[in-house]
């Protein structure tokens, strides 16, 4: 083999090694990234199936759902309250899950416009909390709304769900709660409780 052919062979081998290295560094991570992207998309659409809200809120719910995925029992402290402005009625709501880790608590806040009702806000609070719950988990809800608890009993006591539409002022939200409880096979327990330190802390941190 002459010198010219030797240089050519060396160049071919070098290009081959660079191609292999490039494939090794790109193909494997890309496959992982694709799987992660598909997982995120699946989680995004799963939450979007239940609620129509801003992308930022959906990302918050996805994050919380991931943190809770291995939990068998979750305690939730809820707060649905009515705030009125000159131009529109806004129902603010929020919830806290304080026991994920010793140093971490999970919170979520949102609001509903029009058709003001503190009970409706409380039911929406409960509904958004249920969106992030693991399947077959036990959910213990602490709320200061006796009306919301009475509404939830229609589901937890397996009363004929036709009562949701015939004997209730908030049938749409209650039906959504019923659907997600049935789909995820959740066990719901509600307790009447005053606002706790967790809720007050959440409020103080909200602008």
From TrEMBL:
Please give the coiled-coil regions recorded for this protein: none
**Gene3D superfamilies in the cross-refs:** Ribonuclease H-like superfamily/Ribonuclease H
Write down the InterPro entries for this protein, in alphabetical order: RNaseH-like_sf, RNaseH_domain, RNaseH_sf
Question: Which residue ranges run through the membrane?
Answer: none
One annotated GO molecular function? nucleic acid binding
Span of domain RNase H type-1 = 72-189
Q: Which domain of life is it from?
A: Eukaryota
Q: This chain belongs to which protein, by name?
A: RNase H type-1 domain-containing protein
